[in-house]
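Milestone 3.1: sequence recovery, worked example.
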């Protein structure tokens, strides 16, 4: 009987988009000195812009939708480098190529196995469009470690984070005997806040040392901390 579940976010939690971002910067801005802390802050801004673009894409007012390439304007402006629309498109294309080369850390595979051995249900719940996120799930071979019926994309719920209703809908399809719900994610806005308000216990993978939390939540700054924290919670 399942009493406890751990669901994980996908992008920037299981799939390392930051690594793809850094690879893209090295290819297109090789002459620029890149301070690690500054690059992390730049990526946080880039990611927030990506989230805004996704939210706009769900809007009923298409005229307000910003091009996905626009997030790269932030990067070119940061490096004070002239750009054309073609430059933005090529940069974005290369980012997606590097993104598709990422794989699931073996440490995550072992963590999933340990959770399941301890009678904990493991799943994935990710924002995004069904086709794109399903391809990422296949890319990481997640069905080799997690049953397919425990892998969820918000689009299939007709919803999107940071809506609290996403997590409420997810609860509805889980076993009724579950007593503790944990959600592991990297985004304070999209993961921590709505999960908390839906009655889940957020576990924040705060890789980029972002703002302090306003809610009680567990927090880890890297995978090693995350692993030890989850092992304590089970």
């Amino acid at each position: 009987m399942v009493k406890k579940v751990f669901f994980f976010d996908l992008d920037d939690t299981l799939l390392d988009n930051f690594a793809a971002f850094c690879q893209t910067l090295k290819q297109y801005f090789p002459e620029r000195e890149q301070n690690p802390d500054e690059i992390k802050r730049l990526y946080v801004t880039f990611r927030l812009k990506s989230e805004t673009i996704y939210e706009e894409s769900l809007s009923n007012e298409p005229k307000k939708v910003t091009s996905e390439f626009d997030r790269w304007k932030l990067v070119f402006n940061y490096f004070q480098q002239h750009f054309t629309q073609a430059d933005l498109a090529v940069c974005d294309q290369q980012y997606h190529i590097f993104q598709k080369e990422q794989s699931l850390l073996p440490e995550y595979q072992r963590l999933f196995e340990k959770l399941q051995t301890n009678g904990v249900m493991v799943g994935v719940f990710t924002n995004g469009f069904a086709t794109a996120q399903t391809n990422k799930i296949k890319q990481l071979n997640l069905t080799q470690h997690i049953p397919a019926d425990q892998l969820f994309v918000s689009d299939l719920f007709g919803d999107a984070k940071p809506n609290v209703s996403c997590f409420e809908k997810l609860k509805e399809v889980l076993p009724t005997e579950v007593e503790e719900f944990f959600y592991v994610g990297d985004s304070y806005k999209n993961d921590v806040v709505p999960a908390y308000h839906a009655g889940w216990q957020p576990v924040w993978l705060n890789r980029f040392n972002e703002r302090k939390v306003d809610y009680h939540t567990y927090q880890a700054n890297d995978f090693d901390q995350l692993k030890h924290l989850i092992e304590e919670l089970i």
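The domain at 4-15+104-233 is CATH 3.40.50.1000 (Rossmann fold). The chain has two domains: 4-15+104-233, 17-99.
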